Amino acid sequence: MVKKAQLYKGKERKSRAEVSEFLAELSEKVANGQVILRQVHDDLVLELPHSMGMKVKVTQKEKRAKGTRHKLTLTLTWTEGDHEEPLALG
């Protein structure tokens, strides 16, 4: 049986400039291999491997009252313990 647990969920409305700043900071942390998500009671520390899967998805949904709603989703996937070093020559 596969167990799935939600470790973190955050949602808030931000300006385009604030979103850009958040993504730039996230990009830097991904490049460094560690992302820390701040929570009220505990921080969630993610150690990222050198290689991971990446999926980008864009959808749209028609809303009667508000018009068309667009959604851009970026998903990074990796397996725990998948921290192998890239091949290098000595």
Produce a short descriptive summary.
The protein is of the alpha+beta class and 90 residues long.
Give the SSE layout:
Layout: H1 16-32, E1 34-37, E2 44-47, E3 53-63, E4 67-77
Antiparallel strand pairs: 1-2, 3-4
The helicity comes to 10-25%
Taking strands numbered 1, 2, ... along the chain, how are they ordered across the largest sheet? 1-2
Average pLDDT score: 89
- Beta strands, count: 4
Radius of gyration: 17 Å
Low-confidence stretches: none
- Specify the overall morphology: extended
* Helical stretch tally: 1
- Beta fraction of the residues? 25-35%
Compressed to H and E, one letter per element, the order equals: HEEEE
Distance separating the two termini: 43 Å
Q: How does the major sheet shape up?
A: 2 strands, antiparallel
Q: Helix/strand-derived class?
A: alpha+beta
Describe the protein in words.
The protein is α+β, with helices and mostly antiparallel strands and 90 residues long. It has a domain at 16-77. The chain contains one helix and four strands; from the N terminus they run αββββ. The protein has one helix spanning 16-32, and strands at residues 34-37, 44-47, 53-63, 67-77. The chain has a two-stranded antiparallel sheet with strand order 1-2. A two-stranded antiparallel ribbon has the order 3-4. Strand 3 (53-63) and strand 4 form a beta hairpin.
